[in-house]
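Project outcomes to date are best conveyed with an example. Our students and postdoctoral researchers have been running inverse folding experiments weekly, and each run begins with a structure described purely in tokens. The record below, which covers 171 residues, was selected by the lab manager from last quarter's runs and is presented without edits.
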């Protein structure tokens, strides 16, 4: 049985603007497991090609820590605070972290089933973009490979238009 003080969980910490990678480096130097999901981009100019990485979720670094390491994290120069829902710290499941790593290509590829946009009412999960990991129900086919999806797992219904290539049918 694990002690609550030594059990590690994933948390999101809020950072200053464009300081995600810097905060991650400082956290790792302190022996804390830190992760910033990034997408690799390439920009072509007349005389050169530049490769760079953009964080998928701005202002956030994910840390895998136990209770004893909370203060260490907050002492890092670029960290502002932990993400909270109400007054409670919000831990992130290992499944959600693995989904982020799959989207950025750090884990094995996601096994996609072909999704038929005509299946209104089908349960789906977002596998690309800023809302990765959210699950909902297809309400309407918007055409041009976009679907209107209803999400209720964030506390209220939110209907957004999502490209069908960013959706995976939930079995």
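After processing, the design step wrote out the following sequence:
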């Amino acid at each position: 049985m694990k002690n609550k003080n030594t059990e590690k969980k994933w948390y999101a910490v809020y950072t200053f603007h464009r300081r995600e990678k810097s905060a991650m480096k400082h956290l790792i130097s302190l022996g804390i497991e830190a992760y910033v999901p990034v997408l690799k981009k390439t920009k072509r100019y007349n005389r050169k090609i530049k490769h760079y990485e953009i964080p998928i979720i701005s202002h956030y670094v994910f840390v895998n820590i136990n209770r004893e390491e909370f203060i260490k994290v907050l002492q890092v120069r670029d960290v502002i605070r932990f993400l909270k829902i109400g007054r409670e710290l919000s831990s992130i499941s290992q499944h959600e972290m693995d989904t982020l790593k799959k989207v950025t290509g750090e884990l094995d590829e996601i096994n996609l089933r072909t999704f038929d946009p005509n299946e209104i009412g089908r349960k789906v999960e977002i596998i690309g973009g800023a809302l990765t990991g959210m699950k909902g129900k297809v309400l309407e086919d918007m055409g041009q490979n976009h679907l209107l999806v209803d999400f209720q797992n964030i506390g209220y219904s939110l209907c957004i238009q999502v490209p069908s290539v960013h959706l995976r049918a939930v079995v």
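The longest strand covers residues 135-143. The helical segments are 20-29, 70-74, 94-103. The training component of this project remains on track.
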